[in-house]
Amino acid sequence: xxxxxxxxxxxxxxxxxxxxxxxxxxxxxxxxxxxxxxxxxxxxxxxxxxxxxxxxxxxxxxxxxxxxxxxxxxxxxxxxxxxxxxxxxxxxxxxxxxxxxxxxxxxxxxxxxxxxx
Length: 117
What we know:
By secondary structure, the chain is mostly beta strands. The protein contains no helices and eleven strands. Strand 5 and strand 6 (about 55-60) form a beta hairpin.
């Protein structure tokens, strides 16, 4: 089984920064891609950024230039550095993972990010 645990959320003022972490454990030898999603109250869950096993990175237009996804293979962790945060970034942020050879997507429990003055 694969487990994902997010951390690093919190309350930050507009213009501030946060760094989210996603620690991965379990059968992780065949990871195809890891992604961050977010879900604001009353809205659908939206994709934010992805990083593949080959190192390819893509971002949603809404966060491009402000957010950076990265990984530390030695720590089995993926990070989301979020800069220039604004109230529209307020959401629960989820880490997800897809393995090679299966269509299943694994999800973490989410971490709350609130951007407010």
